[in-house]
Design goal:
This protein is an alpha/beta fold. The chain has 15 helices and 26 strands. Strands 7-8-10-11-13-12 form a six-stranded mixed β-sheet, with helices on one face. It has a five-stranded mixed β-sheet with strand order 3-2-1-14-15, covered by helices on one side. It has a five-stranded mixed β-sheet with strand order 20-17-24-19-25. Strand 14 (232-240) and strand 15 (247-255) form a beta hairpin. Helix 3 runs antiparallel to helix 9 (263-280).
């Protein structure tokens, strides 16, 4: 949209960020960009919102401050509304979210998330709101990706986002010059929102990390997405045509890598970083001997995690990928910070029923370099490579193959050969149920997720069990020729 000097009163810059994932330095640069825009346009000429997944517990400052560093940075940037993404909603309990957002100086918006106990939204969560900036009435509606099996375990009811957004558009359309959906739903769902719901002017998107250098136009709605990790800040110019009164909207992206970190944000990072270091310095365990890790072959630390997941879920078999762990543990005191650094992924245990054939397929895949060396991103995984499968409750004979991999000769559970069509209770990781890494593990049924526990909490518990520490050095895999 061309700038209109004679219509400056009703012109508004709508700035948006999404999927920052605790890249806190980038959050500080975003704060600088927003403040620059406000100096140029005036306080009333700028509206800044965040579309979710600002928090990520892989970052020690976020973990050690319980998320307060992220809220402080959003406050410093003058954020005026934010949506909880799945990294907020699924990695913190309901009570933790209430505490985190109590520090926010802006409304938290989500129309499709309800307290399961009451069937209502808690007081700190709004479906939508109308803000008046520079003479424009802007309706903001928040929505987040629906993961009902996970949200229900945390005391939430997550509803169909399309129906929830449709209801809010109907409620707010008449009170606004512009209806803007803050969508942590992903680009495919954003397109459906535009196609199926009348009355939406702009959709600011996230969740799928889509980068739209040029916004899409779908049935009159402008679809925007600023990628991931705070590398870009989205900008939408909104204005009313002075003759027709029709809303005009145009969007683009602002790279922020070259910007300095805002001074206030830098001070907050330093302050909260020190708080996090103190919190995470607490001892989690003391080891008499080091525990090695090898992402390509069986190793004691990965075995310990597999045994822990098996016990935690009450399963016959434990299966975890060694790539969840980023290094071994030394002898001596193990702090919570070190444990977090070596196991940063916000991944939860789960239990499923899985037939023996699928277990065999997955374990044999894990012997192949193209699997254990595969780089992986997303699904809660915060490591680098997938890593081989560590097991507990299985005894495996295998032989090497000419291509550097291997094949299974025999695989036994409880001393008996694994039966192809028999179902076994398997304790494993939630990411596998989404089709990440070892695809045979996606075929399980009767899946039960264990929330809010992360696998580093499972590992911490195992590190304090002398018998588990002794057993983790016993081999599960035996090489035969």
């Amino acid at each position: 949209m061309e700038r209109s000097t004679d219509n400056k009163r009703s012109r508004l810059l709508l700035l948006h960020s999404n999927d920052v994932h605790s890249r806190l330095e980038e959050a500080g640069r975003i704060a600088a960009a927003v403040k620059d825009a406000r100096r140029d346009e005036g306080e009333q000429g700028v509206l800044y919102v965040d579309i979710g997944d600002h928090l990520d517990r892989m970052r020690q400052e976020t973990e050690g401050t319980g998320g307060s560093v992220n809220i402080a940075l959003l406050n410093a940037a003058g954020c005026e509304a934010a949506v909880p993404g799945n990294n907020e909603g699924l990695t913190f309990t309901r009570d933790e979210l209430e505490r985190i957002y109590a520090g926010a100086r802006f409304p938290i918006l989500c129309c499709n998330l309800l307290d399961a106990r009451t069937g209502e939204r808690p007081e700190w969560l709004l479906a939508g709101t109308v803000l008046v900036k520079n003479g424009l009435r802007v309706a903001l509606i928040g929505a987040t990706a629906a993961y009902p099996a996970f949200y229900s375990l945390l005391g939430w009811t997550v509803t169909d986002p399309l129906e929830a957004v449709r209801e809010q558009v109907g409620r707010l359309r008449g009170a606004a010059d512009a209806v803007v959906v803050l969508s942590h739903l992903g680009l495919p769902v954003d397109r459906r929102l535009a196609e199926e719901i009348d009355g939406i002017d702009v959709i600011l998107g996230g969740h799928t990390h889509h980068l739209l250098e040029e916004p899409e136009r779908v049935r009159g709605a402008l679809l925007c997405g600023a990628g991931k990790f705070g590398e870009r800040l989205g900008l939408v110019e909104l204005g009313l045509d002075p003759s027709s009164g029709r809303l005009e909207a145009a969007g683009r992206l602002l790279p922020i890598a070259s910007l300095p970190i805002d001074e206030e944000a830098a001070e907050l990072l330093s302050e909260h970083g020190e708080t996090a270091r103190r919190e995470l310095s607490r001892p989690a365990a003391t080891l008499e001997r080091p525990l090695e890790l090898d992402p390509a072959r069986e190793s004691p630390l990965a075995n310990l995690l597999a045994a822990g997941v098996r016990e935690w879920t009450g399963a016959d078999i434990g299966l975890v990928n060694a790539g969840q762990l980023l290094g071994g543990l030394p002898a001596g005191e193990i702090s919570e910070g070190l444990l977090h650094a070596l196991c940063p992924s916000p991944v939860n245990p789960c239990r499923m029923r899985l037939i023996g054939r699928r277990i065999r397929e997955a374990v044999e895949q894990s012997l192949q370099p193209e699997f254990y060396g595969k780089e992986l991103r997303g699904f809660g995984f915060r490591g680098t490579v997938l890593g081989t499968l560590a097991v507990d409750g299985l005894e495996i004979d295998w032989s090497p193959a000419a291509d550097g991999g291997g094949r299974i000769v025999s695989i036994r559970c409880g001393g008996r050969e694994l039966e192809d069509e028999r179902e076994y209770d398997v304790g494993t990781l939630d990411m596998f149920t989404f089709g990440a890494g070892y695809l045979p593990l996606k075929e399980g049924r009767d899946v039960r997720y264990f929330l809010p526990e992360f696998i580093r909490q499972v590992l911490a518990a195992e590190l304090n069990k002398p018998e588990a520490l002794r057993r983790c050095g016993e081999p599960r895999f035996r090489l035969v020729r």
